[in-house]
Amino acid sequence: MHLLQAGAWARLAIEHLGDEIAEVGRSERHVLTSAVCVILLHLPTWDHQPTRRSRSWMTSIPTQRSLVAERLEDSRSLKSQIQAFMNRTYHRARIEVAGETGLDEGASPPFCPYDFTAIMTRPIPWLPDDGEPRSTRR
Predict the structure, then answer these.
(1) Which H/E stretch holds residue 5?
(2) Rounded to an integer, what distance in angstroms lies between the CA atom of residue 10 and that of residue 4?
(3) Could you give the C-alpha distances from 17 to 3, 55, 108, in angstroms and in order?
(4) Is it the case that residue 49 has pLDDT exceeding 50?
(5) How far is Cα 78 from Cα 58, in angstroms, rounded to an integer?
(6) Considering 75, 76, 113, 119, which has the largest number of Cβ atoms within 10 A of its Cβ?
(7) Is the pLDDT of residue 132 over 80?
(8) Mean pLDDT of the chain
(9) Contact residues for 40 (Cβ-Cβ < 8 A; gap 6+)
């Protein structure tokens, strides 16, 4: 990458350049799908087990949302693939939700019940120590 940035074209191993570019793409997709998977793990658990809600989930959801937004901003070509990423990661999240909740995997819908807008913007209400509901939309 340094040779490319420096314009040292003669020193580039062109035969490996395609592999390097593909690896960067895979890395970006992996970070994006991992963040989406965390959101898809926490949202159903948040919805169906309110007594298990924690401040870490309340922090994790907006943190992962921010990571998704950053990746999509940095790699705009991934935006057109986001629904496919959600579908692929939902299967993994469904398995994890079953493990976290103790519910049968079949208790979750077979297809992702959230659209991209929902996973990115849906408010996450929290009852802080003073008992007044607050909503985060990060």
Answers:
(1) helix 2-6
(2) 10
(3) 11, 44, 43
(4) yes
(5) 26
(6) 119
(7) no
(8) 80
(9) 86, 89, 90, 93, 112, 114, 119
In this structure, which amino acid lies at residue 3?
L
In the chain, % helix, strand, coil (3-state, to 5) comes to 75, 5, 20
Scan for tokens 């907006």, then name that residue. Answer: 62
Contact 39, 68 (CB under 8 A): yes
Could you give the CA distance from residue 120 to residue 122 in angstroms, rounded to a whole number?
A: 6
More confident residue, 66 or 26: 66
Which long-range contacts link 117-121 to residues 24+ away (Cβ below 8 Å)?
A: 119/36, 119/39, 119/40, 119/43, 119/65, 119/86, 120/65, 120/68, 120/69
Which among 87, 85, 72, 74 has a CA at the least distance from the CA of 33? Answer: 85
